[in-house]
Amino acid sequence: MEYNIALLKGDGIGPEIVDSAVAILEKTADKFGHKFNFTPYLIGGCAIDAAGVPLPQETVDGCLASDSVLLGAVGGPKWDDQPGDKRPEKALLGIRSALGLYTNLRPAKLYPALRAASPLKDEIVGKGFDLMIVRELTGGIYFGDRGYREGRYGQEAYDTEAYSVTEIERIGRVAFETAMKRSKCLCSIDKANVLESSRLWRKTMHALSEEYPEVQYTDMFVDNAAMQLVRDPQQFDVIVTSNMFGDILSDEASQITGSIGMLASASLGASTRGMYEPIHGSAPDIAGQNKANPIATILSGAMMLRYSFGLSEEADCIESAVDKVLNAGWRTADLMGSAEGISLTCTEMTEKISEVL
Ligand code: NAD
């Protein structure tokens, strides 16, 4: 198969980690007889320097014309004084909206070899955990009606949580399909004991669950979910939730893995085109020093193969190469503090994963 991939390397460590992911994708293409064509476009601070705006139209057009998008990270101290709409990070909202991405997939996996990195006790995370949060990205309270008004105690501010059946079904389907590709367990998280929008969320998810009889479906209140994530994260496989609950729970889930340089993410819309990126930022403190951990971006590349191109075997192969390299004790500097191992540079880690592939 042949695919066109837009590369948005961005700033700081962005170019280093995207180059690593490209090397691994190219190796995978060779191994399985595919062809990936990579085209770089500017985004973030480097785009401000070259074109005066964080998201040039050429970048948007290039991404829209591609089969999928791989992003490094944007931002850095050089552009911190730019006004709000000229900041590098503004480009992220712009590109997500231009590509119509309404789903965020955030895996949170604790590798047994890295369990010392987790802030949770060994008896809780001894066997590691591997969960996927499916977060609605373009609705709910972050986009609802808001403002100031005169209230009972004088001036007050308000924000509104609103979800339509269409929006809930749309994200629900992504979650059920994701569960079908994993262990067929899905937990929907809401606050249906208090919120009307959550009651509609729950009712709609229940109706949808009838279309997926193979998926073991459960509901949980968000306050309980926040507790269960730190009490027994292994009970979860796929979680689906609203924009705000997903924002909070996905950060909690990534924190309990303990290693920001390992976590990938995908943003998806109605088409198979998605945008894949590590959850971390541009790490200006280590940029240009060959110290960055490329694994989050490499795993983002694996997610692209699985979710945009339907190449599950190829994605499994990359993920298993990462597992093997970690189990053999190879680490980048950010993983050294928390576990025994042999420290590698960004390029050396990429070569190790490539060798195992
Ligand atoms: P950060 O994630 O860039 O860095 C936080 C810490 O984690 C730093 O010590 C960094 O060295 C380390 N780190 C991050 N990724 C690493 C990796 N792959 N390997 C090894 N160590 C890694 O967060 P920050 O310092 O708050 O932000 C830096 C810049 O990144 C800011 O301009 C911020 O706005 C931007 N940012 C961009 C994105 C994005 O592009 N999606 C996300 C978050 C932050």
Describe it for me?
This protein is of the alpha/beta class. Helices cover 41% and strands 23% of the residues. The chain has helices spanning 14-32, 45-51, 57-64, 90-98, 122-125, 165-181, 196-209, 222-231, 243-257, 295-307, 312-327, 333-336, 346-356, and strands at 2-10, 35-41, 68-73, 103-110, 129-136, 146-151, 154-159, 185-190, 216-221, 238-241, 264-268, 274-278, 330-332, 342-344. Strands 2-1-3-12-11-4-5-10-8-9 form a 10-stranded mixed beta sheet, with helices on both faces. A two-stranded antiparallel ribbon has the order 6-7. β8 (185-190), α7 and β9 (216-221) form a beta-alpha-beta unit. α1 packs across α10 (295-307), α8 (222-231) runs parallel beside α9 (243-257) and α10 runs antiparallel to α11 (312-327). The chain is globular and about 60 Å long. Bound molecules: nicotinamide-adenine-dinucleotide (NAD). The site of nicotinamide-adenine-dinucleotide has 22 residues, from loops.
